[in-house]
Amino acid sequence: MARTSKSLLQKAEPLGKTLTEILVCPLSKQPLRFCVETNSLISDAIGVSFPIKNGIPRLVPTDGKILEEEGTPKPKDTANSSSRTEENHGRNS
Amino acid sequence: MRVSSFLCRNSLLWSRRNGPFGAFSFAWFCSYNGDAIESSKAKIFDRQLKRKQRDRAAWLMRPRDSLVDTVAENLLDRLEDCKKTFPRALCLGGSLEAIRRLLRGRGSIEKLTMMDASSEMVELCKNAEAASRHDNIETTFVVGDEEFLPIKESSMDLVISCLGLHWTNDLPGAMIQCKLALKPDGLFLAAILGGDTLKELRIACTVAQMEREGGISPRISPLAQVRDAGNLLTRAGFTLPGVDVDEYTVKYESAFELIEHLRAMGETNALLQRDAILKRDTAFATAAIYDSMFGAEDGSVPATFQVIYMTGWREHPSQQKAKSRGSATISFQDIQKQFGNES
To answer: What is the ipTM of this complex?
Structure first.
């Protein structure tokens, strides 16, 4: 999975060189990998994918989706719920 | 405040969320004091709501808002004071569109990245960019959160933030991330709203709520004071920090027009502890009190906007530094003799 998307990266680059050069994962600050299949940017360090809409990458942590083991993103919004529990913690403490 | 610390188990957190005035907003910046884990989770603003408000503001926005344009113009003016050029720039949330429109080749930016947490705002800028190709700046767009900056370390020559950072929960953290995104000798320019902003509305709201509801709830955010801004810059590790303040008074027909304007700028209340309901008669009472307390003779009501401009550089060996202690070769007494005792 990782290999295929890497080879495709050179062919289809929807974001352009400028953006791919500067963008990193907002949480881990590690490089991002472009996935053609899902049209998203994937942070391998934390296993989260960020969608690209209209050619604009959405790198807000709550927009990200936690990837399943196989590497296919599920529509289940796990990233959102985890941040919500964090918020609740903040409120309770 | 003293009463509240008895009532509330965590008085520090409480005061942070409720402090609409200067003295409390000081506590808000100290995100690492005491219990680091607990305070890092302290949230003052509802960032998700702010995104929605900014989404709406993208549609409500006035084409050429004079207040926003003045601030953006003033901020960009600083680029002309620098001899350095900034090939790569990052423009953060707030008045993105105004910055892009008013840039006009200043700072000789070649590649500009525009980032906002609101996707509608970014789309708007992208469409505006497509409609008017006035200069050959390569502009790219990202939806991102200032608190989680998705920018590679040491990749930018300039980071501009115009009226956006005052909505971050962790302002020092956001500024540290900006600093990391900068190359050595890169420039950080920011304009945030200061503590005197909307002081009239703050007073009118408080009086009206006391009168109608017998208590008050935070309607206006805690904002940074000028003295905090300098501390913030040094704490984030910027060198040659510079802070200056400007106050703008905008005249409105009534308090309702003021609220409309705030809505169009996406600057409405996004406090986590806000009271979601604003009763109709409280709103009218606020407007009436505003008018009677602050109204001018011509029937308009003034609103103060205090803008704090912050400038900071990322460290670089070429920058000027203070000489080490005791390295002076001339005594001050000699200087005084030389120039006389006029003063």
So the answer is: 0.71
CATH level 3 topology of B2-342: Rossmann fold (3.40.50)
In terms of CA atoms, which chain A residue is nearest residue B35?
A93
pLDDT tens string B270-315: 888 888 888 899 999 999 999 999 999 998 999 999 999 999 999 9
Mean pLDDT, rounded, for B149-157: 93
Distance in Å, alpha carbon of B306 to nearest chain A alpha carbon: 29
**Per-residue confidence (pLDDT) for residue B144, from 0 to 100:** 92
Identify the bridge partners of residue B271 per DSSP, sorted by sequence position: B45
Spans of all domains in chain B: 2-342
CA distance A61 to chain B (A): 7
Q: How many CB pairs under 8 A join A and B?
A: 79
What is the predicted pLDDT for the residue at B343? 54
Rounded to a whole number of angstroms, the distance from the CA of A79 to the nearest CA of chain B is 14
What is the SS3 string spanning B56-106?
HHHHHCCCCCHHHHHHHHHHHHHHHCCCCCCCEEEEEEECHHHHHHHCCCH
pLDDT of residue B13 exceeding 90, the answer is no
Q: What is the pTM of this model?
A: 0.77
* Nearest in space to B162 (alpha carbons), one of B59, B236, B89, B270: B89
Q: Do B148 and A90 touch (CB under 8 A)?
A: no
Q: How confident is the model at residue B220 (pLDDT cuts 50, 70, 90)?
A: confident
Q: Residue A60 and residue B148: Cβ atoms within 8 Å?
A: yes
- Residues in chain A whose beta carbon is closer than 8 A to a beta carbon of chain B? 15-16, 18-19, 21-27, 29, 53-63, 86-87, 89-91, 93
Give the C-alpha separation, B318 to B315, whole Å: 9
